[in-house]
Write a structure and sequence with these properties.
Elements: H1 10-14, H2 21-39, H3 43-47, H4 50-59, E1 66-69, H5 76-81, H6 118-131, E2 139-144, H7 151-161, E3 167-173, H8 184-193, H9 195-212, H10 216-234, H11 238-242, E4 246-252, H12 256-269, E5 273-278, H13 286-289, H14 317-331, E6 335-339, H15 349-354, E7 359-361, H16 366-378, E8 382-388, H17 389-392, H18 396-404, E9 411-415, H19 432-437, E10 443-445, H20 450-461, E11 468-471, E12 485-487, E13 490-494, E14 504-508, H21 513-524, E15 530-534, E16 537-539, H22 543-550, E17 554-562, H23 567-577, E18 583-589, H24 599-608, H25 610-635
Parallel strand pairs: 1-2, 2-3, 3-5, 4-5, 6-7, 6-8, 8-9, 9-11, 10-11, 14-15, 14-17, 17-18
Antiparallel strand pairs: 10-16, 12-13, 13-15
Helix pairs in contact: 4-12, 6-7, 9-10, 14-20, 16-18, 21-25
The protein binds thiamine diphosphate (TPP), 1-deoxy-D-xylulose-5-phosphate and magnesium ion.
Magnesium ion (MG) binds next to loops.
């Protein structure tokens, strides 16, 4: 049995001799490459924190001490060392989560995968320990250099530094988010990293003086002068110590002995301390180290020998956006791109390659991205802020009161809208429709295919006096879905509405249009007429759509956002305000946290499986017919049903 298999929890790890730790680290790396290449996941980040995590669980006493991983994507080693070694279904329903999970282990604290929150968690934990007189407990936060560029981290540091509570901030500095980390913080960490050279220089100085036989006093004076001189040149500790934080480091994050020594030093201070650990993302796995893009930050299924990803066919939503925004930028010199440390994942790399000075990476700082975009717009530019949908959440106030209040022409492009799948509840892009609906003047489009994405993106960047949003899902874009007619501002996709009129209007939103067409097919098998429309611009819900809905007896809405504030929610409210008798069924994501798993399965489980939606629509129509019949009998008068849908002018 290898060392890793012998470890069921931190106590087994603490029992190992220091000289066994490098061997254990090697076994962990072999395990990670073998397991994650089969399932996909955050291979690079976890390869970089093997020795660090071993040190954390040897020095601190989890779960009495609390170890918080920022973002949480680098917690696989933590899981391996705390009794979870079955990675066969990592990030799959029923398997291990790709992030900490309190349901999995008492050693796990924070499940939120949004970056830069760990220091606030640690500050809160430390305050609780102090007030509950649990002074033997330590709060430890492991935060990456990328996450340290997020504003929340500095709000927390400001509080942590002002206290004497034992908070250990471990900066896992691998010099990268996905790409190399940007900004002043990155530069400062780089300066501190040179201290490693400084320490080596110092060691060399000590050895040389000793070898040279210099007398004690002279040797000390010389060395002190060298140390003082070097320190000012290569290692200004400034920032953290000026804040009032003890600084330990920089530490070689792949030297188990040095890591453990530094963590023990930090623990012994008994107050707030920064431990600056230098690591390498993808450490020990050449295909990751050779990957200039992001050192295998997040991989799909790969060949463990070569790191080669499985071939995939078809264009992604992101690639369509990437091409189109670069096209637009060619003629629109005012258009600029903004990314929050995700230039490649959000599709701005092609734009940046073509126009390097017109794409801005602001670090993991979505709030700054939004408000600086308002500034850009005020200066005559048209910013396109590209983020994953879920990450717009934290910039809501900035969208509302910096962009919309000032009627700034800013376009937000939300990738990964809807259910994303393996990353779980804090990654599903299900909040943006509800949040954006709250913003006066904001307009949001949900394209259904590549052509509508291109059209709606161009329409969005043409708006100069209000925020616009274009949202699309994760993965491959579907084949073209042409319209057969227009109804107001909506595309009619299917329907015999110009015949005797259809019973049901099915409103299909964005990436769920293919599902809606399957629903319509199944409903028609029951002899129920269905017209399928795609509103395209879904925030706000426009009067033409409400008019159209009001000309049907029953409306069903299919969308991949949270129910509250969604398209169906707004359409039903508009019909109610008109005292319209049309009945509305809303098929949206339930307003709760959805677990991780396979995207299509999660949508089905959320009640959006075509067969389930169709069944419920047919039942509703039948129920409506029964109600109409019974009320007609009661009144002995002809039914007063909503006038059938009017004929559409053909497109
Ligand atoms: C608010 C927010 N924005 C963007 C992301 C996407 N994201 C996940 S990990 C990551 C990079 C993190 O870099 P770092 O903190 O240095 O950790 P490392 O991967 O280098 O260990 C980003 C941008 C996120 N999780 N949260
Ligand atoms: C941890 C994090 O936020 C990202 O790495 C995210 O997991 C990437 O998601 P995609 O794989 O959908 O790009
Ligand atoms: Mg990093």
């Amino acid at each position: 049995m290898g060392l890793l298999e012998s470890i069921q929890g931190p106590s087994d790890l603490k029992a190992l001799a220091p000289e066994q730790l490098p061997e254990l680290a090697g076994e962990v790396r072999d395990f990670l490459v073998a397991a994650v290449s089969r399932t996909g996941g955050h291979l690079g980040p976890n390869l970089g924190v093997v020795e660090l995590t071993i040190g954390l669980h040897r020095v601190f006493d989890s779960p009495r001490d609390r170890i918080v991983f920022d973002t949480g994507h680098q917690s696989y080693v933590h899981k391996l060392l705390t009794g979870r070694q079955d990675f066969s279904r990592l990030r799959e329903a029923g398997g291990l989560s790709g992030y900490p999970s309190r349901a999995e282990s008492e050693h796990d604290v924070v499940e939120n995968s949004h970056a830069s929150t760990s220091l606030s968690w640690a500050d809160g934990l430390a305050k609780a320990f102090a007030l509950r007189s649990e002074r033997d407990r330590t709060a430890v936060a492991v935060i990456g250099d990328g996450a340290l560029t997020g504003g929340m981290a500095w709000e927390a540091l400001n509080n942590i530094a002002a206290s004497d509570r034992p908070v250990i901030v471990v900066v896992n500095d691998n010099e990268r988010s996905y790409a190399p980390t940007i900004g002043g913080m990155a530069s400062h960490l780089a300066t501190l990293r040179t201290t490693r050279e400084y320490e080596r220089l110092l060691d060399w100085g000590k050895q040389s003086l000793r070898k040279g036989g210099a007398p004690g006093r002279l040797a000390y004076e010389t060395l002190h002068g060298v140390k003082k001189g070097l320190k000012d040149i290569v290692a200004p500790q400034g920032l953290f110590e000026d804040l009032g934080l003890k600084y330990v480091g920089p530490v070689d994050g792949h030297d188990t002995e040095a890591v453990e020594h530094a963590l023990r030093r930090a623990k012994s201070y008994g107050g707030p301390v920064i431990v600056h650990v230098i690591t390498q993302k993808g450490r020990g796995y050449q295909p990751a180290l050779a990957d200039d893009a992001d050192h295998f930050h997040a991989v799909g299924v790969i060949d463990p020998e070569t790191g080669e990803a499985q071939a995939s066919s078809g264009a992604s939503w992101t690639s369509v956006f990437s091409r189109e925004i670069t096209e637009i930028a060619t003629t629109r010199r005012d258009v600029v791109g903004v990314t929050a440390a995700m230039q490649i994942p959000v599709g701005l790399q092609e734009f940046a390659d073509a126009f390097p000075d017109r794409v801005f990476d602001v670090g993991i700082a979505e709030q700054h991205a939004a408000t600086s975009a308002a500034g850009m717009a005020a200066g005559g530019l048209h910013p396109v802020v590209a983020v994953y949908a879920t990450f717009l959440n934290r910039a809501f106030d900035q969208v509302l009161l910096d962009v919309a209040l000032h009627r700034a022409g800013v376009t937000f492009v939300l990738d990964r809208a809807g259910v994303t799948g393996p990353d779980g509840p804090s990654h599903h892009g299900m909040w943006d429709l509800g949040l954006c609906r709250l913003v006066p003047g904001l307009r949001l489009a949900a394209p259904r295919d590549a052509e509508t994405l291109r059209e709606e993106l161009r329409e969005a960047v043409a708006v100069e006096d209000a925020p616009t949003v274009v949202r699309f899902g994760k993965g491959k874009v579907p084949a073209a879905i042409p319209a057969i007619a227009r109804a107001g501002h909506a595309d009619v996709l299917e329907g015999e509405a110009w015949s005797a009129g259809d019973d049901v209007l099915l409103v299909a939103v964005g990436a769920l249009v293919p599902r809606a067409l399957e629903v319509a097919r199944r409903v028609r098998e029951h002899g129920v007429g269905v017209t399928v429309v795609d509103p395209r611009w879904v925030v706000p819900v426009d009067d033409a759509l409400v008019d159209l809905a009001g000309r049907h007896s029953h409306v069903a809405v299919l969308e991949d956002g949270g129910e509250v504030g969604g398209v169906g929610w707004a359409l039903a409210a508009a019909l109610r305000s008109r005292r319209d008798a049309t009945t509305v069924q809303v098929f949206a994501l339930p307003q709760r946290f959805l677990d991780f798993g396979e995207r299509e399965t999660l949508l089905d489980e959320a009640g959006l499986a075509p067969q389930d939606v169709a069944r419920r629509v047919v039942e509703a129509v039948a129920q409506q017919a029964r109600s109409s019949a019974s009320s007609a009998t009661a009144e002995e008068s002809p039914t007063t049903s909503t006038p059938r849908s009017a004929a559409f002018p053909s497109r």
